[in-house]
Amino acid sequence: MAIRLVVGLGNPGKEYERTRHNAGFWLGRAFRHGERHQPAQGREIQALVGRHEPTGAWLLLPQSFMNASGRPVQMLAGFFKIKPEEILVVHDELDFAPAVARLKQGGGIAATTA
Predict the structure, then answer these.
(1) β-bridge mates for residue 80, sequence order
(2) Are strands 5-8 and 57-62 parallel, antiparallel or unpaired?
(3) Taking 50 as the threshold, does the pLDDT of residue 7 lie above it?
(4) Cβ–Cβ under 8 Å, residues 19 and 26
(5) Catalytically annotated residues
(6) What is the DSSP letter of 40?
(7) By the 8 A CB rule, do 21 and 103 touch?
(8) Phi and psi at residue 33, in whole multiples of 5°?
(9) Residue 9 to residues 54, 61, 109: CA-CA distances in angstroms?
(10) Which of 85, 53, 46, 92 has its CA nearest to residue 69?
């Protein structure tokens, strides 16, 4: 199944900008920078929203704190009828060393680490 929505999680504000907790924002910004595409501010959903033109995937960077990021994801996914299995969420994981990534599909704790 194709990824239709990439969500980069982090916390808004200068004090979090260079912290590990913003790893999702970093990847999301790199994703959009490579395509020279500036996301638009989605006031209703409190997020930056953009589109990765070659794939058609949406990019969402919630502008709320991580524990409140579900609402923007739910709103965008609901509007575009994006299924949970078509969403890739990028975030930090304190249980892993820097530069280690975990990819998983679906919920739960089972994962593949690379």
Answers:
(1) none
(2) parallel
(3) yes
(4) no
(5) 21
(6) E
(7) no
(8) -65, -40
(9) 22, 6, 18
(10) 46
